[in-house]
Amino acid sequence: MSRPPTAAQRRVIEDADPVTGRLKGTPALLAALVKRGLAFRHPRPPHDHFLTPAGHRIRQGRAEPAPEAVRAPDAAGVFAARVGGEDAPAAGPARLREVRGAWQGLLELRRMTNSDGATDRPCGWERAHLVQAAALALEAAGHRPAGPDGSGYRVRETPQPEAVAVHEPDAEALRACAVTLERAGWQVGEHTEPRTRARHLLASPRRV
User: Fold this and answer.
1) Could you read off the pLDDT of 91-120 as tens digits, one per residue?
2) Of 3, 55, 72, 122, which is most buried by a Cβ count within 10 Å?
3) pTM for this predicted structure
4) Which whole-number Å values give the CA distances from 142 to 99, 133, 136, in the listed order?
5) Organism's domain of life (predicted)?
């Protein structure tokens, strides 16, 4: 388990803006929170610092997750969603809380990095991490990633630029995945494999 925040770090976390998670503190304290994955530094001037989903959990009085449970690529604080096919246990209450926190963190990242502050369409981080971004949208909406029995969704890369494939053997569940991705700001089309006749989705982040 990682060490809990120091008293000074916790004061900075508790004093964060309740809506945006914006932080105020000394450069040393803010840098320490970034190093711990509890905050990130906005890439645009004035380079303010904001809580990550893990930081929000600390502020809300929940236990800090183990470091391996959350990844923060590009300092975005967005954790690794399940793309389907992982050897992972069924989602429990702790996992569901992490997924909800990660999705809220991604919406905040959209607000801060989309030029117009829009949260209804994907941001640059999502376009650079297509599989993870689409999987997070699906998992956050309650869809089940594929397990050992083969049922559930699988999100995979494709040769097409800015497009992922979503496979789901159940036709009704596949259509539900399409609705979820469209609501999350993705353009979605349903396609048929020429050889197997299996249906799958092609999804791309919407730009406007």
Assistant:
1) 788 888 888 888 988 898 888 888 888 999
2) 55
3) 0.64
4) 10, 15, 10
5) Bacteria
Return the CA Rg of the chain.
18
* CATH number for the domain harbouring residue 37: 1.10.10
Please give the helix or strand (H or E) that residue 13 lies within, else none.
helix 7-14
Domain residues for the domain of 146 are: 93-205
Q: What are the φ and ψ backbone dihedral angles of 185, each rounded to 5 degrees?
A: 100, 20
Which segments within the chain are labelled E, that is strand? 22-23, 39-41, 49-51, 154-157, 164-167, 186-192, 199-205
In degrees rounded to 5, what are phi and psi of residue 117? 75, 15
Structure tokens at 198: 């299996």
What is the tens place of the pLDDT at every residue in 2-60? 578 899 999 999 998 876 778 999 999 999 998 888 888 887 778 889 888 778 778 87
Residues 97 and 161 occupy one common structural domain: yes
Query: Whole-angstrom Cα distance, residue 49 to residue 25?
Result: 9
Question: Cα–Cα distance between 54 and 153 in angstroms, integer?
Answer: 26
Owner of token pair 């610092």:
49
Inter-residue contact 143 to 166 (CB < 8 Å): no
Say yes or no: 201 and 104 in one domain: yes
* Alpha-carbon distance values, 29 to 127, 155, 186 (Å): 31, 38, 38
- Does any domain span residue 189? yes
